[in-house]
Amino acid sequence: MITMNNHVKSVRSPTLEIDEVSISMKVRENEVSFERETGKEKRKLVYRVKDCIGCGMCFNACPVDAITPGPSGVILKGLAEAPHMVISPEKCSLCGICAGVCLFNAIDVEIDGKSIKDLPDYPRYKRSYTFDQEKCKPKDGTLCKDCEEACPRDAIKAKLLAEKNTIERDENRCIYCSNCEKACPEDAICVEKIFDGTVEVDLDNCQGCGVCFDICPSGAITLPKPEKPGEKPNKIEIDTGICAFCGACELVCPVDAITIKRKKMNYIQSKGKSWTKTWERAFLDMVSKEDVEE
Q1: Can you give the residue range of the structural domain that contains 108?
Q2: Would you say 205 and 255 are in contact if contact means Cβ atoms under 8 Å apart?
């Protein structure tokens, strides 16, 4: 573990204004964290490297350009071990926007020990997941695991509880892609997706390299095989019904053949002091100007 400490005066940013700050940074094998403490409050940012897929939502939203992407293509090919994102503690104001927009819970910002995701004063995604245990029934006389097997994030475990089927879901791993809902034969699961939109693929530019397939967190991308000898299938196909619209495929594509357009976003807009113009831009800039759902 590497620890660094520093002391800075007169630090100002568009989202956080402080006169004097103490900086402490820690680097572990799978985690980077740093703290800034003032007389007013203590803020801490934690970046969990293994949970990050490199979708780029955080660095697109960062108001002070404190986040830069790593070499995602090289990482995916196993040619290098490096984080998908690099966060500069010198530039970062710990405003929390990166944590607010991260779908994968790879980044968290705490204020006096409490995550901003749990503070009602801060905007956040509207997450809706319902499970009807009465509808969940054994399949062919045995425990049904269709939802568990369909989950691309290993966020669901099917179990028997009091002789009834039930599930346990890891909120930190669930990205609300709706794979489990589509797989359930009894319609016992209902998922409200965070984003909806369209994906455009330029098949003339697409090389069929499969990098987008490797990085997709929801399993929405497939590499079709010819059904008949000599048949030429599409190089890739994307199921927007289970796509999380995170943008990872667009970012990693080496020939810019993929374009993600988010048309709808479900989020809870804070009415408190944290809903500044900077936060508003960060959230609204993730989608097209029309059809944003609050």
Answers
A1: 2-122
A2: yes
Distance in angstroms (rounded) separating the CA atoms of residues 293 and 77: 37
pLDDT tens, position by position, for the chain (294 residues)? 444 455 444 444 444 444 455 666 666 778 889 998 888 899 999 999 889 988 989 999 999 999 988 765 544 555 456 668 889 988 999 999 999 999 999 999 999 999 998 888 888 899 999 999 999 988 777 889 999 999 999 999 999 877 778 999 999 999 999 999 999 999 999 999 999 999 999 989 998 888 899 899 999 999 988 777 767 777 899 999 999 999 999 988 989 999 999 999 998 887 666 667 888 888 888 887 554 444
Is residue 48 a part of any domain in this protein? yes
Which amino acid, residue 84?
A: H
Are both 133 and 178 inside the same structural domain?
Answer: yes
User: What CATH number is associated with residue 178?
Assistant: 3.30.70.20
Alpha helix stretches (DSSP H) within the chain: 57-61, 72-76, 97-101, 146-150, 179-183, 211-215, 248-252, 277-284
Q: Which residues of 252-279 are buried (b: 16+ CB within 10 A; e: fewer)?
A: bbeeebbebebebbbbeebeeebeeebb
Please tell me the total count of domains within the chain: 3
Question: Is there a domain that residue 294 lies in?
Answer: no
Structure tokens at 115: 């995550």
> How big is the chain, counted in residues?
294
Exposed/middle/buried for residue 60 (C-beta within 10 Å: 0-12, 13-18, 19+): middle
